[in-house]
Design brief:
Number of domains: 2
Order of helices and strands: EHEEHEHEHHEHEHEHEHEHEHHHEH
Number of strands: 12
CATH class of the largest domain: Alpha Beta
Strand order of the largest sheet: 8-7-6-9-10-11-12
CATH superfamily of the largest domain: NAD(P)-binding Rossmann-like Domain
Largest sheet: 7 strands, parallel
Distance between the termini: 24 Å
Number of helices: 14
Strand content: 15-25%
CATH topology of the largest domain: Rossmann fold
């Protein structure tokens, strides 16, 4: 079997080592796989990619022998799933690798917002000033945290929030009542969660059905001065609506590890040089840049998953996905 691993760091190549030697003919590629970055080889039967790769019709046309795509992530919105199904290409993911990891990062961002940690650090480093002007924060203790999505990551966020003595109200289309009873939190319809929460954090997968789940109407339903955290997927949020909510003071601050059109923002020069802008929302790209320049917004580069422990779990599961498929007993296939 001919296999291509994309977006690998050197340590990942070393870690995979003997783990993949028995899988077949394996090639490890540093770069991403996308229409703008097609592979040199065209005969891969399996490719393993990360979230910066985009698998669309042009990539599938380029790889006519492809049978399996393994994404080293839980989310798979960077892959045209319907098209893969129609062409008989299976897609496997890593359903569980970083529920604690991402939850911890969510609180790292939230504490940066609540105590203005980055602004404090930056002031001393850039100006040498120890002035406290403009650095007053707020306690998490007693605040209401609105958790949108109570899967593995959302539940870990709830457990951490409990340690901060926060009140928790959650929304999930499939509420886990037994867990809510155990952890002493309540479920409510989405509109009620938005209205009650002092801080809102997103932990749901992206699908077309929840594109712009948080839009202008949703922001209007929130408390004035709410804080907003997104470590899930950028396209869950209407970026321009968030910009407007921040400008008006409806949202007091935001911490974002993901952005709508973050792939284009990361690779603007190459995409613009290639002149391939179809399918991209340029308004969202502009809004991303507006967010980056706002003093009450913290943006990090899709970093929530990024610990050594989580990455090793991702690699191990990805290898098992390929082994299972090769043996005729596929695992973690996206339905």
């Amino acid at each position: 079997m001919r296999i291509g691993f994309f977006e690998l760091e050197n340590w990942e190549k070393e870690y995979l080592g003997d783990k993949i030697s028995s899988l077949g003919e394996v090639e490890m590629v540093d770069g991403i796989l996308s229409a703008e970055h097609l592979s040199t080889a065209t005969d891969y039967e399996v490719v393993s990619v990360f979230v910066n790769s985009v698998i669309d019709a042009r990539v599938l046309d380029h790889l006519p022998k492809l049978k399996l795509i393994v994404t080293r992530s839980t989310g798979f919105d960077h892959i045209d799933l319907d098209l893969c199904r129609s062409r008989g290409v299976a897609v496997a993911n890593v359903p569980s690798y970083g529920e604690e990891t991402v939850a911890e990062y969510t609180f790292a961002l939230l504490l940066n917002l609540s105590r203005k940690v980055y602004l404090s650090f930056d002031r001393i480093r850039e100006t040498g000033s120890f002035s406290l002007d403009g650095l007053r924060g707020f306690d998490l203790n007693g605040k209401t945290l609105g958790v949108i999505g109570t899967g593995r990551i959302g539940r870990n966020v709830i457990e951490i929030a409990t340690g901060f003595n926060m009140k928790i109200v959650a929304y999930d289309p499939k509420p886990n009542i037994e867990y809510a009873t155990k952890m002493n939190y309540t479920y409510a319809p989405l509109d009620e969660v938005l209205a009650q929460a002092d801080i809102i954090t997103l932990h749901v997968p992206y699908m077309e059905s929840n594109h712009h789940l948080i839009d202008g109407s949703a922001f209007a339903k929130m408390k004035k001065g709410v804080y907003f955290v997104n470590t899930a997927r950028g396209a869950l949020v209407d970026t321009m609506a968030l910009v407007n909510a921040l400008r008006s003071g409806q949202v007091a601050g935001a911490a974002l590890d993901v952005l709508e059109e973050e792939g284009l923002v990361k690779d603007e020069l190459n995409v613009l040089s290639a002149g391939k802008l179809e399918g991209h929302d340029l308004k969202a790209v502009l809004a991303d840049h507006l967010l980056i320049d706002m003093p009450n917004v913290i943006i990090t580069p899709h970093n929530a998953f990024n610990t050594g422990e989580a990455l090793r779990r991702i690699l191990d599961t990805s290898v098992e996905d390929i082994k299972g498929f090769s043996a005729g007993s596929p695992v973690n296939i996206v339905k």
